[in-house]
Design a protein that fits this description.
Elements lengths: L1 E3 L1 H9 L2 H10 L5 E4 H14 L2 H11 L3 E3 L3 H14 L3 H12 L3 E4 L10 E3 L7
């Protein structure tokens, strides 16, 4: 199973070279878990940059994966991981989900660099 971090979802929807890194993974929707907080992050960013209809279209694509809602168990694990790895709240929730469900997290977010079960990629800057 895979989790795609918000950074890669946004790159994928924008059609960038960075987004191409995860495009093959994103297309296999039954292998993707989506932490609910990722829906929040992506939708908020898309609302700022596009129309609501376009943002909802992207969210509909994301929702083809399995949505994982935040519960008490994930909340407590995320709190511990936040302290241990100095992760912001949303990132700790994403990482807790990643560990609980034995996934690989695909990200461009430096907060995750060096953590177990993470595939970190530097963002490709167009030249």
């Amino acid at each position: 199973m895979n989790i795609i971090d918000s950074s890669f979802w946004l790159e994928y929807f924008a059609g960038t070279d960075s987004g191409n890194i995860v495009s093959a993974i994103i297309e296999i929707t039954n292998d993707i878990l989506i932490p609910a907080i990722t829906l929040y992050e992506v939708f908020k960013k898309l609302l700022l940059e596009t129309t609501e209809d376009d943002a909802l279209f992207c969210i509909a694509h994301m929702k083809q994966g399995k949505i994982v809602n935040l519960n008490d168990e994930l909340s407590l694990l995320a709190s511990k991981l936040s302290i241990e790895f100095k992760l912001p709240m949303a990132d700790s929730i994403i990482y807790a989900t990643n560990l609980k469900y034995n996934c690989v997290l695909w990200t461009q977010d430096r907060h995750f660099s060096g953590l177990d079960f993470v595939r970190y990629f530097e963002k490709i800057i167009p030249q």
